[in-house]
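Researcher: Next sequence.
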Amino acid sequence: MIFIIVTSLYFVKLTQCFPQSLVTTGIDKTEVRSEGQVLPLEISKFHVNSTIQFRYARTQVVSHFKNPGTAPNKAKFTMVIPDSAFISNFSMIIKEVEYVAEVKEKEEAKKTFDEAVSAGRGAGIVSKDTRDANIFTVETNIEPGEKVVFKLIYEELLERKSGMYKHSINIDPNQIVDDLKIEIFINESLPISSLSVPELVQSNEIDFTANEESKVAEVERDVDGIANNARIVFAPDRSYQEEAG
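Model: Next structure:
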């Protein structure tokens, strides 16, 4: 599913960003127990917060996983990000300890990863510069009854077309989430002339014609009495998520 907003206003100059590699080291290599019952992992919370200022978007995705089983299980966090975006931060919280990935050039990240493995420390490496460069995926093991929180931040300069820009967010947690929420705050240098939030798109294709406005999204214009500001909140309930597939 793709959540899209369309905004029309004036714009500023283009900046350029490049794909990076991420490396995480120092994760505790807990002994994995094979006994017990493996149950599907539960996503208790999936929040996306995006701030758009002068057409530059910074989006944070936070996903909470829980292992309800009595055996270890792997949590797989996947996020489809726009082709023009770059990852500026990624971290995992395991047993109340946050492990923050470092953003490095590809060769330097590989060297850091190899050194950590040689030293006997847990490590992980993720590269966005691949054939499927817009798909970010990371896995980690969760002990029985434990939780893990994934935090991903990506940034992009939104492209102007016909006097408007589109901001698309992929939201596919692969299960019904009780606490699913997307919040976008827009702050521009000039008043926003038009703002549209179409219904969800059931595809990864973002070249579409918006025909129907979302019945779920809450749109607030002139936030704090300023015509340059707007806020959008999209928090679908279980029945809406089931319908959307």
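Model: Confidence is low (pLDDT under 50) at residues 7-21, 204-208. Residues 106-118 form the longest helix (13 residues).
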